[in-house]
User: What shape does this take?
Amino acid sequence: MKFLATGGLHGSRGPRLAITLCLLLLTLFLIGHGVRESLYWGFSPSRAASELTLPLQGHSWHSPPPGIVGAMEDLHVDLFLFAFVFLFAGATLQQLLLPPSVRRALLWLAGMTPALYLLARFLMHLFAPLAWAALIAAPALYGVYATLIVLILRLLWQKRGPSGATL
Amino acid sequence: MKMRPPLAGVSAIFLGYFFLQLLSAALLFGWKQGFAPSSVYEYYQGSEAMLKRYPDATDRFLQARSLEGILKAGLAHFAVYGLSAFTLVHLLRSSLGHPGRLVERIVHSYFLICLLELLAPFLTRIAVAPGEFRLLSLGLYLFSSAALAAWLLRQVLWSTSDR
Assistant: This one.
C-alpha cells in the first residue's frame, strides 16, 4: 500500500520515524499477545488438554460446546489484528531493498505463522493434540515478527541501504 | 515487460485472513443467533416478542438484548468495517489501474452494504425489523465481501498489468 509511504523511506523528511514508532507499538502488541496467551493456556499442551479441550459428544457443528464460542471470538479478533499487522509489516518490507528470495521467504513466514498458530490455538479446543501444533507455531510466530521488526528497523536506519536504497 | 501488480503476495495472504474472518463471522452468527428468522428475532427481541411474531417457532427463553450490549459489539465493528472495506477496495482499485464508473459504483455500493450490516442489529432491536431483514443484511455483506475479495484474488493471481 503505497499510501503508507509518501517519499523516500530513508529520507529525513520521509515516514521513517513514524514507521519506527509504529513498529515499537506493534512490538508491545506482540509482547502483550504473548503474555495473554501465556495466561490463557501457558503454552502447555497438557494444560490445554485438561482445561480447554471440550467434549464433542452430543454436539454438532450447529450446536457446539459452549466454550467454543469464546474461542471463536478470540480467533475472529486475532485474525483481524494479525491481518493488519501483517499488511503493515509486509507493505513496509516490500518497499525496502532486499533480495527477492529473502523478501518472499519473510513475507510467507510473516503471513503463515500467525495463521497456523491461530488456527491450531482454536482447534485445540476440539482436538487436544493440536495444542502441540500451537506450541510449535507460537515461537515461530513471535520469532518471525521479532526478526522482521529488527530487520525493518535496521534497513530503515542504515546510513545507506544495500544499494543506496530509497523508494 | 509484463509483471504482477505490486504487493501481490502481501495482498494474497491478506485475503486469506479476510476469507477466514468472513468464515468465523458467519459461524459466530450461526452459533449465537442461528440462521432462522425467528431465532435471529429472538436474539434481539427476546422469546416473548418472538413468539408473538413467529408463533410456530420454538423458543430458547431469551431476554431482549440491551441497546448497550448491541452498541458494545457494534462500536468496534464500525471501525473494523471501515478499515477492512477501505483496504479491500483500495487494493482492488490499485490492481485495476484505471477503474471505470462501474467499479466506482460497485465500491460505493459495498460501503452502503457495510453500513446496512452495521445498522441492522440496531434496526432489528429498535425499529423491530423482522429477522428476515437481519439475515438479508448479513447475506448481502458476506456475499459482497467474498465477491470483492475473490475479484481481488483473481487480479492478484492472474493480472499481467505492469503497474
Observations:
- The radius of gyration of chain A is 19 Å.
- Residues 13 and 104 of chain A are 28 Å apart (CA to CA).
- Chain A has a mean pLDDT of 87.
- The first helix of chain A runs from residue 16 to 41.
